[in-house]
Design brief:
globular; mainly alpha; Four Helix Bundle (Hemerythrin (Met), subunit A)
């Protein structure tokens, strides 16, 4: 891989990218408690469901990358919360904290020179570490955009 260190730095940055779109942290900042579980008309998910889905999916990909005893989850049941709203304020806070913790772990994985990014994950079915890191970033960008859309429709987005 050309200039391995530069690629690793870009991958780590990509996981919290803000150059081309809103970051996760900006998208979830300042959302009123009463609107976190509200679904706008004709949209399938609330902000809570999108946030929790992002957390679960990111955690699952991290586990897949680092845990040789990884057990595949069931799609879509295990990846989406059933409730439109968090059970409590602490559930919201915990979800955000865990998302950020796992993002840092993925950034550390990207930066770890002892891991061949192009190597197949030993317990996978052909996936590479590079593929999984790009997948997390791409998936995150998609759903962060949805969070912004929901916020706009709920009238609580003043960002660009």
């Amino acid at each position: 891989m050309a200039d391995d260190k530069a690629v690793r730095e870009q991958l780590a940055r990509l996981l919290a990218w803000g150059d081309a779109h809103v970051t996760f942290d900006a998208a979830v900042e300042g959302i009123p408690v009463k609107l976190r579980g509200k679904r706008p008309a004709r949209l399938p998910h609330s902000i809570w469901q999108l946030v929790e889905h992002l957390r679960i999916a990111q955690y699952d990909i991290l586990e897949f990358c680092v845990n040789p005893q990884y057990k595949e989850m069931t799609w879509p049941d295990d990846y989406w919360p059933t409730s439109a709203a968090p059970r409590s304020l602490s559930a919201w806070t915990k979800s955000l904290r865990q998302f950020r913790r796992d993002r840092r772990a993925l950034q550390a994985l990207a930066a770890d020179a002892s891991i061949d990014l192009e190597a197949r994950i030993p317990h996978g079915s052909g996936q590479t570490y590079l593929r999984e890191l790009v997948l997390v970033a791409d998936h995150g960008a998609y759903h962060v955009g949805q969070i912004v859309l929901v916020r706009r429709l709920l009238g609580v987005w003043s960002g660009a």
